[in-house]
Write a structure and sequence with these properties.
single chain; about 260 residues; two-stranded antiparallel ribbon; nine-stranded mixed sheet; Stationary-phase Survival Protein Sure Homolog, Chain: A; alpha/beta
Amino acid sequence: MRILVTNDDGINASGLAVLEHIAATLAGPEGEVWTVAPAFEQSGVGHCISYAHPSMISELGPRRFAAEGSPADCVLAGIHVILKNKRPDLVLSGVNRGNNSAENAMYSGTLGGAMEAALQDLPAMALSQYFGPANKDLENPFEAAQAHGAEVIRKILAATPAHTEGYRLFHNINFPPVAAADVKGLRAAPQGKRPNTSFSAEEQISPNGRRYMWIRGGNQHVACAPGTDAAVNLNGDISVTPMRADLTDQAALEAMRGLE
């Protein structure tokens, strides 16, 4: 198996090393793991691509590259430049430092990389590690993802139907904020929404009098609707959410047929 790996935390991120370990386990001794990750952190860029300017690609070592761009840029570089004549069999994005459950999925560069791979007609998964009091101070706070990641991916690959037409599935995987030994299980879960939680902006004035803005995140441990991704994560389970790039609300679309 040939696996392409990317992330949004950058080429030097700890979570990327964890994902490379997971990918190597999946690929096996006869497989290949290729890493194309952002040269600098790209958290929160979503599915952004660098359409209006070029991106430099640097080879850092065997099968290891950094690109000056977003995770989606890195996937495009991997597929169309670095692996031009040998497309990967699977694209993995992560392991993100922090969860991409609930509304976080809409901002996530980690998911943006997986989405771009799906748009390129390749199976893809985004992996993220939820942090909380039970794991943030561990020697390896990514240990739940590292211990269970390969098995989870194998199960998803085995359960995913063959792609036929339309937008291809990609999968959003979130590991709970607990130690590896305390993970309860794997749950298929829809995307949730944390009530009264959103990003916000805070103004600050620099020493020279210029106005700047910092983006602030919301409480990641607010209870969500039972059975949704963030809820099962906070209960100690790994969540997997199948997604597509199609944002159409089918129920609303049917309700609007009367406008025609």
